[in-house]
Write a structure and sequence with these properties.
It is built from eleven helices and three strands, in the order βααβαααβαααααα. The protein has 312 residues and is mainly α. The protein is globular and about 65 Å long. The relative contact order is 0.14.
């Protein structure tokens, strides 16, 4: 007989990364440190861009938007896990679980789209420098950011709303540290064939199209840069793309790693561990990638922290 949730609202139990009580303090300390570093690093990027007029350009507009997105992703997942460990209560309400799931999809999808928008910005800057100010105007940048947000929100709403008709048992154990879409679908008592089909279709389109756009943009960039006669000019052109390429590689490499690990292993614990590399690590490392590889950002951060203007 099919279980339904019509007589009672299901309760979700987030099992986390480990059920060993001896390891809980270590997990708590590690994730608290990661969260604090993520918040501090991304806040510094946002403040540095906002405080320096010479950083009020499309590239840094998208960078600060990416930092806000990273903050939101981390805040959606890590604090709940920390509270669960401290309170020793890993339960999550049905609305709370669906809300967390939806926000993860929104901000994860937004980061995916923003990386494509940033690649387009670099393409216009290098391949069409004379038209850059017109093509990447403030209005266009805002419209691109809103378009990214609209696409991500629509995708998240589609998957979240399709979860509402699904039936669950009274107590649902999720072998994860947050409510993850595929895990929740797999624990339903209902027929989830449509949900699974849309997950695969949505993943292919939602990840594939932006990644294809990034590849096409950088193929044009490489072609244009190789035409520059001087080695110094080529190095300068490539240096403006280095930080973004590093973030793209980090984001997609960890995402593909999670997908591949879920395909080759049936261990829920290993899948949860792999998800850390996708939903936690890139958000922490992105500020360091941009601050270490970008001279303007290093100077702005130095002035923001020490009060000493660049060059002094």
């Amino acid at each position: 007989m099919e279980a339904t949730n019509q007589t009672g609202i299901p309760r979700f139990l987030l099992l986390g990364l480990t059920e060993d009580p001896a390891l809980q303090p270590l997990v708590f300390s590690l994730f608290l440190s990661v969260y604090l570093v993520t918040v501090l690093g991304n806040l510094l990027i946002i403040l540095a861009v906002g405080a320096h007029a010479h950083l009020h350009t499309p590239m840094y507009f998208f960078l600060s938007t990416l930092s806000i997105t990273d903050l939101c992703i981390s805040t959606t997942t890590i604090p709940k896990m920390l509270v669960d460990i401290q309170a020793r209560d890993h339960s999550a309400s049905y609305p709370g679980c669906l809300s967390q799931l939806g926000f993860v999809l929104v901000f994860g999808g937004l980061e995916n789209c923003l990386l494509a928008a940033m690649a387009y910005d670099r393409y216009v800057a290098i391949c069409q420098p004379l038209r850059y100010a017109i093509v990447m105007s403030t209005r266009v940048c805002l419209l691109l950011a809103l378009l990214c947000l609209g696409i991500a929100t629509g995708n998240a709403l589609l998957h979240t709303l399709l979860l509402l008709p699904l039936a669950f048992g009274p107590d649902v154990e999720i072998p994860h540290f947050f409510c993850e879409l595929v895990q929740v679908i797999g624990l339903s008592c209902s027929d989830t064939s449509i949900n699974i089909l849309l997950v695969h279709l949505g993943t292919s389109l939602f990840a594939g199209v932006p990644l294809l756009g990034i590849i096409v943009s950088y193929s044009h960039i490489v072609t244009s840069v190789l035409r520059i006669p001087s080695g110094r000019g080529r190095h300068r052109a490539f240096s403006t793309c280095g930080s973004h390429l590093s973030v793209v590689c980090l984001f997609y490499a960890t995402g593909i790693g999670v997908y591949m690990s879920s395909e080759v292993t049936a261990s829920p614990t290993k899948n949860a561990m792999a998800s850390v590399m996708y939903i936690v690590v890139p958000q922490m490392l992105n500020p360091f990638v941009y601050s270490l590889r970008n001279r303007e950002m290093k100077g702005a951060l130095r002035q923001l922290i020490t009060g000493v203007p660049p060059g002094q």
